[in-house]
Predict the structure.
Amino acid sequence: MLNKKMAQALNEQINKEMYSAYLYMSMSACSNKMGLKGFANWFMVQYHEEMFHAMKLFEYVQRQGEDIKLEAIKAPPKEFASQLDMFTQTLAHEQFITKSINDLMELAMEKKDHATQIFLEWYITEQVEEEENDNDIIAQLKLIGDNPHALLMLDRELAARMTTIPTDFSKGVEAAAKGA
Ligand code: OFO
């Protein structure tokens, strides 16, 4: 059972994660158009990660017997100046998501909702990793500067990123995560 305010906040977080997926999908398309297929791949893997984040919330709210309330997803930017611009925007967005997850945790603590606190711990750990990844790539892009050869080398490196989370949620997120 979830407190109504908690259920509403978790539903809103589903929308934020869906927007994250949409944002990275847009960055993937933009990278592809620039001829940077490795960056396009990295952002498409990130898209899958965000869908997983959204679906975990979706399933949790349902398992707690609350209604799913899906709202419109706002349009992401369509144009980006450079790869550095994309990753700077990615980091800023992830910092916003981290704050949002922290706010959810504070609400769960205030409501003495232990189950939701345990559920949210996974997201708190995940956000540290997400911000770290973005910071690492930003540092590399700053070193690369205007060197196209170095940019293509990084592009080749990012092409190797693979999706490691489930992408088929038809039998539920928990079942998919166990490989069922
Ligand atoms: Fe990128 O972690 Fe979810 O939003």
